[in-house]
User: What shape does this take?
Amino acid sequence: MSIKIENLSYSYRQHAGEKVDALKNVSCFIAAGDFVGIMGHTGCGKTTLIQLMAGLRSPISGRIYINGEDINAKSYDRNSLRQTVGVMFQDPEYQLFATTVEKDVAFGLKYSGLSPQEVTARVQWALATMGFDFEKVRFQSPLALSGGEKRRVAIAGVIATKPQILIFDEPIAGLDPYGRENFLQFVSQMNKAGTTIIMVSHNMEALAEYTKHLLVLDKGRLIDSGPTREVFARLKQRKNGSLGQTEAQRIATLLAEKDLVLSSAVVTYDDLLSALKQELAGGALR
Assistant: This one.
């Protein structure tokens, strides 16, 4: 499903009464089946934007359309939105609350219209997708699981509804390299199967490697958007790359300072390796 955002603004007041403009006149389009990254410094409005997309907040002004329907219109079916959009926030383990793993994963299916047998099958599928043995964990308390297991149960609860749009807020923060890679591979497979993915992250390498398009926020404004590689290339030229550079870009810059200028645009580690092989094969120390 596609998402169209038009002139979206949101503000709130701090405890002292000071007004904060979290988002200012943001407009963008996310095509059905896209994999979009959202990046920017802490406090730039990333989380507010995805909360608005998910219908958890209402904008001060502007419109959000999912498949052409205004999700904030009075006539819009909010239950439909819950089945269409799945959201996993930071520290997803804190989204767990039911007495058993099975009940927790099944919670989002409460108003799905599925039969009890269909709900059980869906929960079993979601847990298996996240690497669990259904019979072993179904009656366990989710709060008794390890941190990594809690996160996987939380994700199972999100994907159990089989949403057409999945939104993740810093999903790989705190994961070890193996866990990050496994999660990103899983999300990539969901995207290849047709699910629209939106991922907020500070991890430049993950954004560069997996996303197709990027939205870049700064102080509540959308300052850049487009294909991921093109956006990273532009960001490298902006304020010395202070808004976001991958490690591969930084290494390429350091090499250029040592007179090893790589001939192709470098964004990912694979780009860097390929460019180094090309340059060194030709003896191109300049």
About this structure: The chain has two domains: 3-245, 246-286. Strands lie at 3-13, 19-30, 35-39, 61-66, 69-70, 85-88, 165-169, 196-200, 213-218, 221-227. The chain has eleven helices and ten strands. The first strand starts at residue 3 and ends at 13.
